[in-house]
Design goal:
Elements: E1 14-19, E2 68-72, E3 75-80, E4 83-87, E5 99-104, E6 110-114, E7 117-121, E8 126-128, E9 138-143, E10 149-153, E11 156-161, E12 164-169, E13 183-188, E14 194-198, E15 202-206, E16 209-215, E17 218-219, E18 225-230, E19 236-240, E20 243-248, E21 251-256, E22 263-268, E23 274-278, E24 283-286, E25 291-294, E26 306-311, E27 317-321, E28 324-328, E29 333-336, E30 350-353, E31 369-376, E32 387-391, E33 411-415, E34 421-427, E35 430-437, E36 443-445, E37 456-459, E38 464-473
Parallel strand pairs: 16-17, 31-38
Antiparallel strand pairs: 1-38, 2-3, 2-30, 3-4, 5-6, 6-7, 7-8, 9-10, 10-11, 11-12, 13-14, 14-15, 15-16, 18-19, 19-20, 20-21, 22-23, 23-24, 24-25, 26-27, 27-28, 28-29, 31-34, 32-33, 32-35, 35-36, 35-37
């Protein structure tokens, strides 16, 4: 296994690969860690909150069988009547495996924003849309009924129609004191109106004209928006740190929610319920009157970071998280992982589902894998009795638990032996972040080739991965 890494300082030092020798290494047994459990199947209890203004739900009728696709930074995982299929740039015409956003188009195709552009997927084949240099950093994507594609991105929103791209700068989406360059999402309503949310405004495009709603123009106070969705009745919902605003009868209506923060994603289910995903607090469900909260503590989610939400016309809700894809059918909760399904990556960027979605196959019980390696100091001497951890979510330069991985949904740990070697066994299939003690009370992590983000090491079912020798350098 050949691996080349640049280094990133987590606390004081960094981990680098010094030797790639693949050989049997002795080590101590990893400390026992509870395997991730499926959320308990139970009826949620409404959270006690002050009465909210009633909003009439927008109900969707069943449309028959469809497909499910899940995107991340390693490709696309799709489920249909034939089972799971994983698409990458190596086994398909997918141009790039780094996928950031997706949308279901009116004709049933999926529009997917990748690092270099946009591709359309009909469930069998990919069709690349001509690239443009007009934008970078795609944040959201949507399709209109005329075949046009809209991409929200830093400094504006771009539309592909009639074979060419047109970009509308962020100065057309907000102005004055609300002006900003952070454009987070785009959605198209059934009536053809295009809605875009920035950090300080919501803008609507109709008849080649933009209408801007911001503080003093549609909103009484300041808003810091994060997510956008349009329901079946064409009403846009814009989430922010103080609740959500919904546009109906030509006016914005504030529904306050003071005890949730960091809204990250927004989706609508077949009964018209609106779901709000957060970065640290799981997901909140609003049925037009009452709120219900679901998170790790309630044992309904494995991760509190909800990146994407999709509702199918059969009544199920799909929650993409940083650790698994969770499905709720109105009664039961089920989380799909690489270790129990054909999912290609536990870290989900977006979820797409057409019609009623597919029938879920029974969960699998895949063989566990293991990780071996060696830690040494900069002078080549082994690092003895040092703790090594692997966990499932990427790490920043700081952590809040007792150790870098201890507050994560799942982690395993081991100690190095007298020769610096370690062995971590009983590892469920998945991608893992590796961190280790440095010997002076600090920790370091293995980073990607740019030295910025956590390097994720793939451990497949039943596989033993030799990470090689990791050398600590000051």
């Amino acid at each position: 296994m050949k691996r080349n890494h640049h280094q990133f300082l987590l606390v004081l030092v960094a981990l680098i690969i010094a030797s790639l020798a693949c050989r049997a290494l002795a080590g101590t047994e990893p400390a026992p860690t509870t395997e991730p459990q499926q959320p308990v199947l139970q009826e949620p209890a409404p959270t006690e909150v002050p009465p909210q203004p009633e909003v009439e739900p927008a109900i969707i009728e069943s449309k028959g069988a469809g497909i499910l696709c899940v995107g991340g930074t390693t490709g696309l995982s799709c489920l249909n009547e034939n089972g799971w299929q994983i698409y990458t740039d190596e086994n398909s015409d997918l141009p790039n495996p780094y996928l950031y956003a997706g949308a279901v188009c009116p004709d049933g195709q999926f529009a997917i924003a990748h690092i270099n552009g946009v591709v359309l997927f009909d469930g069998a084949t990919f069709r690349q849309i001509p690239e443009t240099n007009a934008y970078t950093s795609p944040e959201g994507i949507a399709c209109d009924s005329n075949g046009g594609i809209w991409v929200a991105h830093f400094q504006g929103v771009s539309r592909y129609a009639d074979g060419q791209w047109t970009t509308y700068g962020s100065d057309q989406l907000a102005n004055g004191e609300s002006a900003n360059e952070l454009v987070y999402d785009v959605a198209v309503a059934p009536d053809g109106k295009v809605w875009v949310v920035t950090s300080r405004s919501v803008a609507m495009f109709e008849n080649e004209t933009w209408t801007v709603y911001q503080e003093g123009q549609g909103f009484n106070g300041s808003r810091f928006f994060n997510a956008l969705a349009v329901d079946a009745n064409g009403r846009p919902w814009a989430a922010h740190g103080s609740g959500v605003d919904v546009f109906e009868n030509s006016a914005w209506r504030l529904i306050e929610k003071s005890d949730y923060n960091s809204p990250q994603s927004l989706g609508v289910d077949a009964k018209g319920g609106v779901w709000f995903g957060t970065i640290t607090s799981g997901v909140y469900q609003f049925d037009g009157t009452a709120w219900v909260h679901h998170d790790r503590a309630s044992e309904r989610l494995l991760s509190d970071y909800v990146t994407s939400i999709a509702g199918d016309s059969g009544g199920r809700v799909w929650l993409g998280t940083s650790y698994g894809l969770t499905m709720f059918d109105g009664v039961n909760w089920q989380t799909l992982l690489m270790s129990n399904s054909g999912l290609g990556d536990n870290d989900v960027n977006f979820v797409l589902v057409s019609n009623d979605g597919p029938v879920l196959p029974a969960l699998e019980e895949k063989a566990k894998g293991s990780l071996i390696g060696k830690l040494e100091k900069a002078d080549g001497t082994p690092l003895v009795d040092a703790t090594v951890e692997i966990c499932v979510e990427t790490l920043a330069s700081t952590f809040s638990g007792d150790t870098p991985c201890s507050d994560q949904p799942f982690f395993l740990t081991a100690k190095t032996g007298a020769d610096g070697t370690f062995l971590i066994e009983n590892v469920p299939a998945g991608y893992y972040v590796i961190v280790a003690e440095t010997g002076d009370g600090s920790w370091a992590q293995l980073t990607d080739e740019f030295g910025i983000s956590s390097e994720r090491t793939l451990i497949e079912a039943g596989e033993q991965v030799d990470i090689g020798t990791l050398t600590l350098e000051e």
